[in-house]
């Protein structure tokens, strides 16, 4: 089977399909397609063709059709950001998020941010949810309220001490309104900055800008919290320096004041009382330094941290990553008790607050916002990063085929393409191949990462 060996212990269906693939004449091409997707778990299958002609002579310079491919299809990566759905595509998404966040920290002219951005005041802020009842935790060097000193990987961490008195309705309503809390926070932040600068909001806006990039993460108790890079810019955004009054201390104080002001009112409905939703008291704001000095977090650490959580969702709490329509599914899916109660609360509250779509987002424990967002001027966009990658690959392909660049003023080529959707996913044998290829790619990346420091040291010694 080419360079792939069949392991023992495969179920008969997968093994038979794998043997069928190995005997097929297009087996090497199937492996190549799967490898080009990075071992995508659920690739998109397309039927279609492309033809590139010289518009002057009418000659066909290149043509491609999926009719020559195994099964008559071309496989493309699904692009799903969730590691629980597709680890291969999630790795790409995390990489894009890393470069997006890093570009807003260290600067990258190619991505729309100058190198001078390192001199702007920047902080890494974490905004959390309030308490909905005591849970098992690790409060510093003290034992938990249950009297036990839990290890870091204790399965009980985040689980309520008394589930019957835990405010599950409040927890899922808070998650559901978390994006509103963040929106009001950004509004109040600008107001607090102007207040501390002794300026009107209009004057402060004319002299400075506030940019951010954030990611949502679930705590073990199932509550969403936000990690955000918040940065001072000048009036023209990242290309201009902030005014002298826009200091790190002013930004930090304004964040604390803005978070304390935010309040979202939920009116009473049915058996549910009126609620006022606020941020929790555990607000952490840390300066970001260009270089680590043993005390502050670095740009590299922040970008890596944000990218890590950009591919995760509520499944980290024990829930599932797909919609749940009724409570009976919770038992069938063997969802643990705590997340099951949160999901059940969403389903119970949906008829009471139909506009909040809690049933649709029950598997997300009520949260319905985007996991990774940024302000317009923070840095580049994920779409721009993807387009750059696509353009690079297209240029590689043109070079390999000897085709001219279509952007060249002297180019006389025209490409016509026709594609139709032909399904998605793998056969059982292809799924095993994809998993094997994905592990090989991951192993190669880890090996390269481990060897990079030694390589740089050798190059430095040689220089």
Key structural traits:
single chain; alpha+beta; 2 domains; six-stranded mixed beta sheet; 12 strands; disordered N terminus; RepSA_streptomyces; Replication initiator protein RepSA; RepSA
Question: Can you tell me about this structure?
Answer:
- InterPro entries: RepSA, RepSA_streptomyces.
- It comes from Streptomyces similanensis.
- The protein is an alpha+beta fold.
- It contains 12 helices and 12 strands.
Task: Set out the fold topology.
Layout: H1 12-23, H2 27-36, E1 44-54, E2 60-65, E3 74-76, H3 87-106, E4 122-127, H4 168-176, H5 178-197, H6 201-207, E5 209-218, E6 224-233, H7 248-261, E7 264-266, E8 275-277, E9 284-289, E10 297-298, H8 299-309, H9 328-332, H10 337-349, E11 372-374, H11 382-401, E12 413-424, H12 428-462
Helix pairs in contact: 1-12, 2-12, 3-8, 4-10, 5-6, 5-7
Sequence of secondary-structure elements: HHEEEHEHHHEEHEEEEHHHEHEH
Summed up, the helix count is 12
How many structural domains can be distinguished in the coordinates?
2
Ranges with pLDDT <50 over ≥5 residues?
A: 1-6
Radius of gyration: 26 Å
Q: Given the C-alpha coordinates, what overall shape results? A: globular
Major sheet details? 6 strands, mixed
User: In terms of structural class, how would the helical and strand content be classed?
Assistant: alpha+beta
For the termini, the CA-CA separation is 45 Å
Strand content: 15-25%
Mean pLDDT: 88
Task: Work out the number of β strands.
Answer: 12
Which sequence of strands runs across the widest sheet?
A: 10-9-4-6-5-11
- In which range does the helix fraction lie? 25-40%
């Amino acid at each position: 089977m080419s360079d792939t060996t069949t392991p023992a212990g495969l179920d008969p269906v997968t093994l038979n399909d794998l043997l069928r693939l190995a005997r097929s004449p297009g087996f090497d091409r199937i492996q190549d397609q799967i490898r080009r997707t990075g071992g995508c778990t659920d690739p998109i299958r397309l039927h279609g063709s492309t033809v590139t002609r010289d518009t002057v002579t009418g000659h066909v310079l290149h043509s491609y059709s999926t009719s020559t491919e195994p099964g008559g299809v071309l496989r493309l990566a699904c692009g799903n950001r969730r590691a629980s759905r597709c680890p291969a595509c999630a790795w790409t998404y995390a990489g894009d998020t890393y470069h997006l966040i890093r570009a807003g920290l260290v600067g990258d002219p190619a991505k729309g941010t100058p190198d001078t951005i390192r001199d702007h005041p920047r902080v890494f802020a974490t905004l959390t949810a309030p308490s909905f009842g005591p849970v098992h935790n690790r409060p510093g060097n003290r034992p938990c309220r249950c009297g036990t000193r839990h290890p870091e990987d204790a399965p009980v961490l985040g689980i309520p001490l008394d589930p019957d008195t835990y405010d599950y309705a409040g927890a899922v309503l808070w998650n559901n309104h978390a994006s509103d809390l963040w929106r009001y926070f950004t509004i109040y932040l600008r107001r607090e900055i102007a207040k501390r600068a002794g300026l009107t909001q209009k004057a402060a806006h004319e002299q400075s800008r506030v940019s951010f990039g954030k990611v949502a993460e679930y705590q073990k108790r199932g509550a969403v919290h936000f990690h955000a890079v918040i940065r001072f810019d000048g009036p023209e955004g990242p290309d201009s320096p902030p005014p002298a009054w826009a200091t790190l201390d002013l930004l930090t104080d304004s964040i604390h004041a803005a978070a304390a002001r935010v309040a979202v009112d939920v009116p009473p409905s049915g058996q549910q009382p009126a609620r006022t939703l606020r941020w929790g008291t555990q607000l952490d704001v840390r300066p970001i330094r260009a270089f680590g000095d043993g005390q502050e977090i670095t740009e590299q650490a922040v970008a890596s941290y944000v990218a890590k959580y950009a591919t995760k969702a509520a499944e980290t709490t024990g829930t599932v990553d797909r919609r749940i329509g009724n409570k009976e599914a919770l038992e069938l899916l063997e969802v643990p008790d705590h997340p099951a109660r949160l999901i059940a609360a969403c389903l119970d509250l949906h008829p009471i607050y139909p506009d909040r779509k809690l049933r649709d987002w029950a598997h997300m424990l009520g949260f319905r916002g985007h996991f990774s967002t940024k302000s317009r001027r923070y840095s580049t966009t994920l779409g721009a990063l993807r387009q750059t990658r696509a353009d690079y690959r297209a240029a590689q392909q043109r070079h390999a085929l000897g085709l001219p660049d279509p952007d060249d003023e002297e180019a006389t080529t025209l490409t016509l393409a026709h594609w139709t959707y032909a399904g998605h996913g793998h056969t059982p044998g292809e799924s095993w191949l994809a998993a094997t290829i994905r592990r090989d790619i991951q192993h190669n990346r880890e090996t390269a990462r481990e060897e990079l420091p030694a390589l740089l040291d050798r190059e430095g010694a040689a220089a």
